Amino acid sequence: MNMLEANKIAGAFLMSLLIILVIGHIGDFLVPAPKVERGHDAAAGHGGAKSAGAPAPAAAQATPIADRLKVAVSGEGEKIFGKKCASCHTANDGGANKIGPNLYDVVGGPKAHLPGFSYSDAMKKAGGNWAYDTLDAFLENPKAAIPGTKMTFAGIKDAKERANLVAYLRGQSAAPKPLP
Ligand code: HEC
Question: What is the model's pLDDT at position 124?
Fold first, then answer.
C-alpha cells in the first residue's frame, strides 16, 4: 500500500517534470523570436550610441557664440553668475579664490589663468586660451570640454544664457578683449 502510494507520488512527480520539460521546449521554440528582437535592440543600441555622440555637432549647429554675443546682455549674465557660479567663484579685480579660482580677466587668458590656484592636472595640461568658443563649450559641459576637470558643475544648456554669462565675464577686465 505504502509502496503504491510512493509510486503514485513518484509518478506525479515524473509527470510534473515531463510537463516542465515540455513547457521548456515550447519556450525554446519561442526563444528564437525574442533573440532576433534582441538583435534589433542591439542594433538600435548602437544607433543610440551614435546619436549620443550627436551633442557636439548639435552644439556646432547652434548659433555661433560670435553672433550670440552681439545681442548678449552682460547684466543678465551677472544675474546668472550670481545664481550659478558665485558659490565657487568671484569675478571682480582681486576677488578671492573660493572652490574655484577668481575669474577676473579670464576671457582670452590662458587656461588655468591664475598662478597659485591649485588647478586639476586636466586643466593645467589642457593648453590654449579661453577663446569665446572654447569658454562657451566649457560652460555648456565642463566635464566633456575638459575631461578630468574638478569644476563640478553640470553646465548651462541654454546657449543664450551662456552668451550673457560670457559677455559679463568679458567685462570683468581692465581691458576687455575685442568681440569676435
Ligand atoms: C562647484 C563649484 C563651481 C561652480 C558652481 C562653478 N565653478 Fe568654475 N571652476 C571651479 C573649479 C574647482 C575650477 C578649477 C577647475 C580645474 O582646475 O579643473 C573652475 C574653473 C573655471 C574656469 C577656468 C578658470 C581658469 O583659470 O582657467 C572658468 C572660466 C569657470 N570655472 C567658470 C565658471 C562659471 C562661469 C560658472 C557658473 C556658470 C562656474 N565656473 C561654476 C568650480 C566651480
Answer: 98
